[in-house]
Design a protein that fits this description.
This protein has 248 residues and is of the alpha+beta class. Among the domains are: 19-74, Arc Repressor Mutant, subunit A (Orthogonal Bundle); 83-132 and 207-237, YebC, transcriptional regulation domain (Alpha-Beta Plaits, 2-Layer Sandwich), CATH 3.30.70. The chain has 9 helices and 10 strands. The chain has helices at residues 6-21, 23-39, 47-58, 63-74, 106-119, 149-158, 180-189, 211-226, 241-247, and strands at residues 83-90, 96-103, 123-124, 134-143, 163-166, 170-175, 196-203, 207-209, 230-235, 237-239. The strands form 3 sheets. Strands 3-1-2-9 form a 4-stranded antiparallel sheet. A 4-stranded antiparallel sheet has the order 5-6-4-7, covered by helices on one side. It has a two-stranded parallel sheet with strand order 8-10. A hairpin with a 3-residue loop joins strand 5 and strand 6. Helix 2 packs antiparallel against helix 3 and helix 2 packs across helix 4 (63-74).
Length: 248
């Protein structure tokens, strides 16, 4: 079982920066509200909500904030109602982008997303224009120093994982979305701390960028991920570590 993706490494580093900025709280609150509205406010019977609650606790979100967001979703407490929307498009060099957002104003959000893409040499596409290049998968990242390959492989496969990939410094556990909760639980039972655990859009292949195109794409991704309405950005970009260091 093997595989490699520099883009996932970029995501890990950017995820840590997002947490420091505090933006992750805003994103999680929106996700809690929408998940509770879609599947009810009980994490025991709502797997999506259970996963997000675990993520909220992992970043030390206060319990009252979690409860309030869930109550907004179930209608027990007033608050802004968000709508999920997915945008597809291209960035510099033909890199495919899937942008998942939650918004209370679709017209505002689509206009701002289109402006960012155009400014950095990209373009907003139609629905299904790039989604065929990605697969929806459960995706868990673990630093190699924190896990034995044999123990991780055995636990993950027994719980229903499809693959264990080597990403250089990390192990990537990939599963079908439906198997993700069981695989995540199996990994956690080993006492392993994960760097990332989510249902993600993983690219089937990658577009390599360098030089000005790479720098433009990294800047675009940075701005998209900083947008208040954007929850996740998925890309099939592969970039050299030197480009990443130059951008940072």
């Amino acid at each position: 079982m093997s595989g490699h993706s520099k883009w996932h490494t970029i995501k890990h580093k950017k995820g840590a920066a997002d947490a420091k900025r505090g933006r992750v709280f805003t994103r999680i609150i929106k996700e809690l509200t929408v998940a509770a509205r879609a599947g009810g406010g009980d994490p025991d019977t709502n797997p999506r909500l259970r996963t997000i609650v675990a993520e909220a606790k992992a970043v030390n979100m206060p319990a009252e904030n979690i409860k309030r967001a869930i109550r907004r979703g179930t209608g027990e407490e007033p608050g802004v109602q968000y709508e999920e929307i997915t945008y597809e498009g291209y960035g510099p060099g033909g890199v495919a982008l899937i942008i998942e957002a939650m918004t209370d104003n679709k017209n505002r959000t689509v206009g701002e997303i289109r402006h960012l893409l155009t400014k950095y040499g990209g373009d907003l596409g139609q629905s299904n224009s790039v989604s065929w290049m990605f697969e929806k998968k459960g995706y868990i990242v673990i630093e190699k120093a924190k896990a034995s390959e044999d123990a991780l492989l055995s636990a993950a496969l027994d719980a229903g994982a499809d693959d264990l990939r080597d990403d250089g410094d990390n192990w990537e556990v990939v599963s079908a979305p439906d198997a993700f909760p069981a695989v995540k639980e199996a990994v956690e039972k080993l006492g392993i701390q994960t760097e990332s655990a989510q249902v993600a859009m993983l690219p089937k292949n990658y577009v390599s960028l360098e030089g000005r195109a790479a720098q433009s794409m990294l800047k675009l991704l940075d701005l998209l991920e900083d947008h208040d309405d954007v929850q996740h950005v998925w890309s099939n970009m592969d970039v050299d570590e030197k480009e990443l260091e130059a951008f940072a």
